[in-house]
Structures are given as C-alpha cells and as structure tokens.
Design goal:
It catalyses: L-seryl-[protein] + ATP = O-phospho-L-seryl-[protein] + ADP + H(+); L-threonyl-[protein] + ATP = O-phospho-L-threonyl-[protein] + ADP + H(+). With 548 residues, the protein is α/β, with parallel strands linked by helices. It has three domains: 91 residues, Phosphorylase Kinase, domain 1 (2-Layer Sandwich), CATH 3.30.200.20; 171 residues, Transferase(Phosphotransferase), domain 1, CATH 1.10.510; 265 residues, P-loop containing nucleotide triphosphate hydrolases (Rossmann fold). It has 21 helices and 18 strands. The strands form four sheets. It has an eight-stranded mixed sheet with strand order 13-14-12-15-11-16-17-18, sandwiched between helices. Strands 1-2-3-4-6-5 form a six-stranded antiparallel sheet, with helices on one face. A two-stranded antiparallel sheet has the order 7-10. A hairpin with a 6-residue loop joins strand 3 and strand 4.
Length: 548
C-alpha cells in the first residue's frame, strides 16, 4: 500500500501523471493517468508485475499487444520501464462498468438474450486472436471482471496480462496462470493451452452468469439451477466445459454459430413477444446469419448449379445473400454469369485481394438484385489459402446469408474448418448407379455423418431428377433420404438462357419449378414470415400467352 500511495500524483515516463488506482490483480495494478503533453487526454497505465527480472518477456508482451488492431480491444500506445525495474504499459482508457459490476447490480441474474449477445461478441474477439498472424494469441483469463460493456452493450476485452502466443509442438506453457473458477483444466495440469482453452473459459463464464455466480467446477445440470435455460444452450455450455480439449467445440466460430442459432429461440423462452414477424419489417432483420456450404458428393454432381439455384430463390424472396466460390475449387461461376459482359467495371476478385494483404471490403461489389456474386478469377486462385482466410472473406462479404460452393474439396483443411461452424451443409448428388457406393463416396458420407452427430444440419439434394423418379433401393443406400431435388432442365431452355446471357434459373418457368422442388430446403433455412413475403409475379396477359 505505501508504494501505491507514493505513485499517486507521480509522473512516469516523463509524460504521464498518475491520478488514481483503477484496479489491481495478480498480474499488477492499473492506474488512471493524464497525459502531460496532450492536455485533457487520459490513459490507463498498467504496472506489470513479475517482469523486473525478465525484461525480454515484458518486451514480448508489449510488442504482441502493440500489433493488435481491433475496435473492441484496448490499443497499446506506449510502454517503458523505470530505473527501479518497474515495467509499464500505456493503453486506451476504457470507461464503463465491467460485466462483473453489471452482474452484481442486477442481483446476479442477467437476461438470457443479453448473456448470449455478449458471448457472441466474445466469440468474434477470440476468433480474431486465435487466427492472428504470424502466431495465434491465447487470452487464457476470461472472466466477468475482464469484460467491459460500452454503449449498446458493446463488449471490450481488457487485461492481456496472461495472454501468450501459441507455439505449435510445445507440450506445456512456460507459466500456468489462470483464475480459479474460470481457467481450463490444462492450465493447472502443466499442459499447453490453445484456442480450446479460451473456449473452456467462455463456457465457465456463461455457467457463472446463468447460475447466479456458481463456478464450473461445482457444476450441476443448469436446468436444476435456473429456470428457462433452453436445453440447447445448456448442452452447448456443457460441451465447452469438457475436461478433454478434444471433446469441446474446436473453434470460436463454431461456438458463435451455435449461439447465434439459439438467440431467437432464447428470446422467446425469456418472454419476448411471440407471433409472426411483421411483413413491414426489413427481410435482412428477419433472417439470422447463416453459412450454407454446398458441395458435391462426387465430381459432376452439380454443386455450382445447386448454389446458384438456391441463390435465385433467395433473390425471389428478397433475402440479401452472397454466393462465394471457395478458393480451393476449380472456378465456374464467373463463366456461368457471363462475367466478361456482366461483371461491374473495375471488379476485383475478393479472394485475390485478400491474399495480397489488402481488405476486400472496399472493392466494387458484383450485385444482381439481392445476390452478391463472389466468384474466383477464371484461371483459378493463385496463392496459398489458409483456414483463417476463409473467415476473413466471410467477414468482408457482409451478407446475412452466405452460400459457399466447395465443389468436392471436403478434405481441404480450410473447408473442414468451415464445416465445423456451418449452419447448413448441402450435399449434392445424382442417382447415377454405383457413384454413391464408390469408396471415396462412402468415406465422405461417413465424414458428413460425423458432423451431423455434432448438431450440424447435413441435407442431401438430388440433382437432375424429380421426387417420383427416386428408386427405393438407391434411397436406402444413403444415410438419410434426400431432402429435396432439382429437376432436369431441358437443353432447349438452357440454350435460350445462354443466348440471352442470363442464368437459366432466372427463366420464369425454371424458377417456378425450382421453387416447388426445393421448397423443403427453403422451409428449413428461412423463417415462415420470409416465405410468406414472396415477390409478386408479373401477371401474364392473354395477349402475351398468344404471342408465346
């Protein structure tokens, strides 16, 4: 305490005057300071304990924090040490209550919908850290007192005192640190932490917030501790709290998609108004974010045709969405869309822009109605594509529904990362004899069923066939009966579209047939209110019929 009293009012680093103590913990104290050079500017200055004998570690942490650029994290602006060996970091001063403060003020019971929204934001932050280059960053100390809430409950993650880079192949952390009650088991067992350790701390914090302050190591089934916790939410938290990292969710994006899918249902359970959504409400606010992967069970099944067909049906429903070609596949979309004539002037391929280190957010979008097209360049993607790049691309697309064509690249590492957090996996196949019984097809079917077992929707779609033409023996050979079909489109209709430079799916008779045969898929992925808002079709006069 005497040291603390001496520092209040003192000038540090020749520039910062200490005003008061903001907080303290095992890794040091945090002070409020005014800037003597920039009048009126205030900073949070962290006195970092434990670095006096290890200045290299202090520099490593400071340099790591200096590279972080995220609006929901404090920005490190300066760091220095004194003659006495004390180390300090100067960061943004973030005003607002901590989540722990809010929890106590509300009598230790927060609304379910608020807790889920906070968790979804934390998943975004963890995804940023876990995919940080050149090495992922593991936060390791998530707890309510390290989360601050700003305007509109915007989450700010503070105190990176125990964060560290993840080292591939390392068997244990140099130092095992964490907060009892929230830290993952491996943090206290001499084992290495990784992204799944942060996911455990997220589960532990959710458990704490939803059980009036109980710690995860004391856990009972949540339904016995708090009413109205939906079973899917309780089971997601239980999954995060598995002792073995291999049994937990494997990425922050997977957790985010689980929570996002629960959000609307949770709001209803919590007592928010039921009933059909207003038709006056914008469609984009009625549709929750969805990632739909579309791929073929084997080559030539027609995954691109299926992806475009689904897109044109969503356009008919006035649902904003994007169709993205995964960079691992052989490109088709640009040619199918007659890109030489239809692409906007100065169009830049998003994957190529991203791989060059730039952001594709500011590039000219290729839009047609409610569809945003994101094709690969005709010669294919040139470069190395990392799993984290796929999520950066999804973030740049900024559409509530993303349909990603993965063709047959199921085994690609970046595709499997997406499969783990997809809302829907649509598997396209045709009824050609023997193709489903190929060893490669059987192995893929087994892989897909493993994702279904994890709660991800896997739906089989048959191309070039009507429902009534499916043979029972063929259907029985699949893990599940096909969800819907896409009918065979005649060569004459296809050529008519080609001559006009249009998608054949935009032919009215084709769109009507697709709407009928793919209705089960639309009902599965779209709210009822959206399906009822179908764009009115143009009336066909007797004269126009005569002309045809």
């Amino acid at each position: 305490m005497p040291n603390q009293q001496r520092i209040i009012g003192a000038d540090l680093g020749g520039r910062y005057r200490i005003l008061s103590l903001l907080g303290q913990g095992g890794m040091g104290k945090v002070y409020l300071a005014e800037d003597l050079k920039l009048k009126g500017k205030r900073w949070a200055i962290k006195e970092c304990a434990g670095f006096a004998a290890d200045p290299d570690s202090f520099l490593e942490e400071a340099e790591m924090l200096a590279r972080l650029q995220h609006p929901q994290m404090p920005q490190l602006v300066d760091y220095f040490s004194t003659d006495t060996g004390s180390c300090y970091m100067v960061m943004d001063y973030i005003q607002g209550p901590t989540l722990q403060d809010l929890f106590e003020q509300q009598g230790r019971e927060l609304p379910l919908s608020q807790v889920i929204q906070i968790a979804i934001q934390l998943c975004d932050l963890f995804h940023y850290l876990h995919t940080f280059q050149p090495r992922p960053i593991i936060y390791r100390d998530l707890k309510p007192s390290n989360v601050m809430l700003g305007e509109h409950d915007m989450v700010r993650l503070i105190d990176f005192g125990v964060a560290r880079h993840y080292a591939i192949g390392q068997q244990a952390d140099t130092v095992q640190i964490g907060t009892v009650g929230f830290a993952a088991p491996e943090q206290f067992m001499g084992l290495q932490t990784d992204a799944r350790s942060d996911l455990y701390t997220l589960g532990a914090m959710l458990y704490y917030l939803l059980t009036r302050g109980r710690y995860a190591y004391q856990r009972q089934h949540m339904g016995s501790l708090r009413a109205k916790v939906p079973e899917p939410l309780a089971s997601t938290i239980e999954l995060l709290l598995q002792e073995s990292p291999e049994l937990r969710c494997q990425s922050a994006l997977e957790v985010k998609h689980r929570l996002r899918a629960l959000d609307a249902d949770t709001a209803r359970v919590a007592g928010e108004p039921k009933g059909r959504m207003s038709r006056k409400q914008p469609v984009s606010t009625q549709v929750s974010d969805k990632l739909i992967l579309v791929g073929g069970l084997f080559a030539g099944a027609g995954s691109t045709f299926a992806a475009v067909s689904l897109a044109r049906l969503l356009d008919h429903l006035q649902v904003p969405h994007a169709v993205v070609e995964h960079p691992a596949i052989e490109p088709d979309l640009y040619m199918l869309l007659y890109g030489d004539q239809q692409a906007p002037a100065h169009y830049a391929y998003a994957a190529a822009v991203l791989s060059s280190g730039q952001s594709p957010v500011d590039t000219v979008p290729w839009r047609r109605g409610f569809t945003t097209w994101v094709p690969l360049q005709p010669e294919g993607f040139q470069g190395t594509w990392q799993p984290s790049d796929s999520f950066k691309l999804l973030h740049a697309v900024k559409q509530p529904v993303v349909i990603m064509d993965i063709s047959t690249k199921w085994q690609d590492a970046s595709v499997q990362e997406l499969m783990a957090c997809a809302d829907e996996i649509v598997v396209v196949l045709d009824a050609s004899p023997g193709k489903c019984n190929r060893p490669s097809s059987l192995a893929l079917l087994q892989l897909l069923e493993s994702y279904r077992a994890r709660g991800i929707h896997v739906r089989y779609l048959v191309n070039r066939l009507e429902v009534g033409q499916l043979h029972k023996e063929w259907v029985d050979s699949l893990p599940e009966a096909p969800f819907c079909t896409i009918p065979e489109i005649s060569a004459e209709v296809v050529m008519r579209a080609v001559q006009k430079g249009e998608c054949v799916q935009d032919q009215q008779q084709v769109l009507s047939r697709l709407e009928q045969t793919m209705q089960p898929l639309l009902r599965a992925i779209m709210p009822e209110a959206v399906l009822l808002r179908q764009r009115p079709r143009a009336r066909v006069s007797l004269f126009s019929r005569f002309r045809r």
